[in-house]
Design a protein that fits this description.
Blueprint lengths: L2 E5 L8 H9 L4 E5 L5 H8 L4 E4 L6 H6 L5 E4 L9 H6 L3 E3 L6 H16 L2 H9 L18 E5 L3 H10 L5 E5 L5 H5 L4 E2 L2 H7 L2 E4 L13 H6 L5 E4 L8 H9 L5 E4 L19 E3 L8 H19 L10
Parallel strand pairs: 1-2, 1-3, 3-4, 4-5, 6-7, 6-9, 7-8, 9-10, 10-11, 11-12
Helix pairs in contact: 1-12, 5-7
Length: 319
């Protein structure tokens, strides 16, 4: 009997990479492609699926309770906030992600946002195009070796980001309660607690996962603790920052600016005040993307499924 593999939703132009992985596996399979938006739509199609490939559709506790045959849920990407991990674990269903596909891309994008802000590239470009040829629009700009880049999280991506930042002369610090001071010191990074790094960073780059403990981790009170010249960079998940509090802090000059690849609502709301601010850079959740990363992501997400359906272990299992 063929395995039923449900793709809950996708935004790719074709599914050649996934189909090639499934066909090369030697498994008999029925690959169902959907564009689910709600729990009800996922429940209807996933009930008898042996495997689920997921992008954004909700795979909640309610969805998982309805699954009769599922052995694995594989998600495109690093974050798994679309999937109820506890419910899957309780039911003995493997959940897997692809944590290493975009390490270079996301760290490069965070670096690009940092450098654009540090040298006011976006601001100056926009002013020149408005007819204003005046370097003073970018005042003040400081030498890199006079500034501290702080990172929230010390996993694969922030470590790679720091490796790229350090040769430019920035001082570096990190907050991660699960990594020791000695481990950070071994790569020349100062460990700080959350309040300390909030106070000390000139550039604060967010690289933590979105979980209950990190929802609105950056809120009104923490924004008030930051330096007035501070810039916050987010290439992780939008809801880690309270966007209403951020907009207010930027409007009132509590902090200097923001560079965001992710927002609380995606696409960003058309009436968001962030879109009208010259001290904000926004890109459309594109940090993960390169042609090579996209292929790697899709192949590895599909291979997670093949490995589990063959009775093997995937190295990317979370449950």
């Amino acid at each position: 009997m063929a395995f039923k593999i449900l793709l809950t939703d996708y935004e790719f132009e074709h599914l050649k990479y996934e189909e090639d992985v499934f066909q090369e596996s030697g498994l008999d399979f029925d690959f169902i492609k959907a564009q689910c938006k709600t729990e009800e739509e996922v429940i209807e199609l996933a009930k008898d699926a042996d495997a689920i490939l997921n992008q954004y559709a909700p795979v909640s506790r309610r969805v998982i309770a309805s699954l009769e045959n599922a052995k694995i849920i594989s998600r495109y990407g690093v974050g798994v906030n679309t999937i109820d991990l506890d419910a899957a674990k309780e039911k003995g269903i493997t959940v897997a992600n692809v944590p290493d596909y975009g390490m270079e891309e996301v760290s490069n994008h965070a670096l690009a946002l940092l450098l654009s802000w540090a040298r006011k590239v976006t601001l100056l470009n926009n002013e020149v195009k408005r007819g204003n040829w005046d370097f003073k629009v970018g005042v003040p700009i400081h030498r890199f070796n006079e500034q501290t880049v702080g990172v929230l999280g010390f996993g694969r991506i922030p470590r790679r980001f720091i490796e790229k930042v350090k040769p430019l002369g920035f001082k570096t610090a990190a907050y991660d309660p699960f990594v020791s001071s000695a481990e950070m010191a071994a790569v020349g990074v100062q460990k700080m607690d959350l309040d300390e790094i909030i106070r000390e960073a000139d550039y604060l780059s967010v690289h933590v996962p979105l979980i209950d403990d990190t929802f609105h981790l950056i809120n009104e009170e923490r924004l008030k603790q930051m330096k007035r010249n501070a810039v916050i960079i987010n290439t992780a998940r939008g809801p880690i920052i309270d966007e209403t509090a951020l907009s207010d802090a930027l409007e009132r000059g509590v902090i200097a600016g923001a560079a965001l690849d992710v927002t609380e609502n995606e696409p960003v709301r058309f009436d968001s005040p962030l879109l009208t601010m010259d001290n904000v850079i926004i890109t459309p959740h594109s940090a993960w993307y390169s042609e090579e990363a996209m292929v790697e992501l899709r192949q590895k997400a599909a291979r997670n499924i093949v490995q589990v359906l063959k009775g093997e272990k995937t190295p990317y299992a979370l449950t």
